[in-house]
Amino acid sequence: MKVLKILLGIILVLAIVIIIGGFFLPKNYSVSRSVVINTPDSVIFKNIADFNEFYEWNPWAKMEPTAKTIFSGTPATPGHIYAWVGKETGSGEMKILKVERNKLVDIDLFFKEPFESHADTKFVIQQDGGSNRVTWTMSGENNLISKWMCLVMGGMDKMIGKDFESGLKSLKEKSEKGS
To answer: How many whole angstroms from its chain centre is CA 126?
Structure first.
């Protein structure tokens, strides 16, 4: 009986530390990476805003090419959707909210599994000399679980920054080939 009381006490203290500690951890996150691409903005825009094209350079599709994917809606317009279900990548969907042709693609990224969350994902295309700079940004709010995950894993930037870099490198290669 004494061991049970000690065990319950430890569990209670841990729960309090996790909940109260969560109030002191960052509520919001933002991860951003950029690349300069030597091709017209219209080619880059198509490779981002048409999810059929996006799929070809997307770092997570490369990580799990066997994930089930569904594309719906009109490419490069609000409402265009890319949904996936995979063992490694979980499940979720990306839905275009807003586009400014050859300049901006604003996407709602909804993760369903393993943890439910929304993120605002933007691709901004800006002229940079004779080239175009593409900036990929993802921002959102951390819930209690993701606050602690970020603390343990080193933050969202550390968790997905390399994926953004890999994806932008692939976007650059695909775009500069003219496809």
So the answer is: 21
What are the extents of the domains in the chain?
A: 28-176
To the question of pTM greater than 0.90 for the whole model, the response is: no
Is the confidence at residue 2, as pLDDT, over 70?
yes
- 114-123 tens-digit pLDDT: 777 788 999 9
Determine if the peptide bond prior to 78 is cis (ω within 30°): no
d(CA 144, CA 23): 8
Helices (H) and strands (E) in the chain, counts: 6, 7
Amino acid code (one letter) for 15: A
Q: φ and ψ at 141, to 5 degrees?
A: -110, 140
| Count of positions (residues) in the chain | 179
The topology (CATH level 3) of 28-176 is: Alpha-D-Glucose-1,6-Bisphosphate; Chain A, domain 4 (3.30.530)
User: What SS3 class is residue 122?
Assistant: strand
- On whether the CB atoms of residues 109 and 94 are closer than 8 A, the answer is yes
- For residue range 126-161, list pLDDT tens digits in order: 998 889 999 999 988 766 566 546 555 556 666 677
